[in-house]
Design a protein that fits this description.
100 residues, mainly alpha, elongated
């Protein structure tokens, strides 16, 4: 018994997962900017770093999120995105603990 794999489903799920990731990073970045409004210089520096990390992630992951081009797997891009996502997760937890 042979099973036929539908190759159209996996790329769609991957694109949707990358879009959800970018959406979550956008929300944390916006919360960080909100923190900067009343956080003084430290909040502004944190917001600046979050915006830079968000911009880098969007730029690097655009092909994966839109499904255009042939995405590369693994390598330094995936490690960098993992580090940025971990940093945003920590930042999001700190924002929640601060009460924003």
């Amino acid at each position: 018994m042979s099973t036929v794999r539908d190759p159209g489903l996996q790329p769609e799920r991957t694109r949707l997962a990358w879009r959800r990731t970018l959406l979550a990073l956008t929300v944390v970045t916006l919360l960080t900017v909100r923190l900067a409004l009343d956080g003084g210089p430290a909040g502004a520096a944190t917001a600046g770093l979050a915006i830079l990390g968000w911009g880098a992630t969007v730029t690097l992951c655009r092909r994966r999120a839109t499904g255009s081009g042939v995405p590369r797997t693994g390598g330094p891009l995936l490690a960098l995105v993992g580090l940025v996502a971990a940093g945003f997760a920590l930042l999001g937890a700190l924002l929640v603990l601060r009460g924003l």
